[in-house]
Amino acid sequence: MNRKVTVVGAGNVGATLAQRIADRELADVVLIDIIEGMPQGKGLDMRQATPVEGSDSRVIGTNDYAETAGSEVVVITAGIARKPGMSRDDLLNTNFKIVKECTENVVRHSPNAVLVVVSNPLDAMAQVAHKVSGFPKRRVFGMAGVLDSARMRTFIAMELGVSVENVSAFVLGGHGDTMVPLPRYSTVAGVPITELLPPDRVEAIVKRTAGGGAEIVGLLKTGSAYYAPSSATAEMVDAVLKDKHKILPCACYLEGEFGISGLYVGVPAQLGAPGVEKIWEIKLTDTERAALHKSAAAVKELVGVLKL
Ligand SMILES: NC(=O)c1ccc[n+]([C@@H]2O[C@H](COP(=O)([O-])OP(=O)(O)OC[C@H]3O[C@@H](n4cnc5c(N)ncnc54)[C@H](O)[C@@H]3O)[C@@H](O)[C@H]2O)c1
Fold first, then answer.
1. How far is the C-alpha of 57 from the C-alpha of 50, rounded, in Å?
2. Which residue's CA is the nearest one to ligand 1's atom 10?
3. For the segment 224-259, what is each residue's pLDDT rounded down to a tens digit?
4. List of residues 6+ apart from 63 with CB closer than 8 A
5. Is 133 helix (H, G, I), strand (E, B) or coil?
6. How far is the CA of 47 from the centre of ligand 1 (A)?
7. Atom of ligand 1 at shortest distance to CA of 78?
């Protein structure tokens, strides 16, 4: 195998993502972190799982960006995570410096890579990576919508007692308290949940989805979610590596779509080998559109603080 994916940040999300990519034999994986020895140890441990998992992905851990050279996809998970009582926005200044530094190092060694940003606050960090890399917008996007939609799918399946595979859901907007779950576009075997559940149950699912990350932070107490976030990121990496033309909600740079400009916001995007091939401008009601604009305004305020 000679396709290469780099995961920057070998913490909870990064290491779990590296493991998922290796287990699925999607590519060779380079796991990089600033902590000496830790990515090397995790990388070697994962490599030793490959004979049992039946995968020939070569996983290595490193502190040296030279090892990441020529990566097709680079995922940035470096940065601090939330603790109880913190919002994603509280991470802004610390993660800005980290994501900036990581992006500069990444582009030097993998100038043609597709960059997937995971570090929070997600939409602002995607904007940082886009600006610092100088890459075209199609090659820089953020993971949030796939995770938020997976949470909503889980809650719908739990509510109705059906297979998660029958459920699809759509969550747009920024990855924060103002995210926009869209019940009208969330379906069970093709039927919108608005036809299957009373309004108060739909509202409860929407609310639990928007607070899905905080619910886990409150339970873990020492960090934030990483199993579902790494699954969601792996789906996006898979769509790019396999050129699937798959429509997934991603944080994309908008230039007029949905009436929003110059900002990263979660929208339905078609992912393939070039990155974002197309943004699907689905029809929104006035209420949904207003909620998306409110969410975009919250992202704009954060980005404004950074003075990019
Ligand atoms: N977008 C999403 O939906 C989503 C979901 C979950 C987590 N996150 C975010 O992802 C990030 C990582 O979360 P986590 O749980 O893995 O945290 P973590 O603390 O377990 O891991 C972060 C890792 O980043 C490393 N790091 C710090 N500075 C670095 C640098 N300059 N270069 C390389 N590595 C560096 C740290 O050493 C650490 O190993 C957080 O910002 C978190 O908020 C986003």
1. 7
2. 119
3. 999 999 999 999 999 999 999 999 999 999 999 999
4. 32, 33, 34, 35, 36, 39, 40
5. helix
6. 22
7. 24
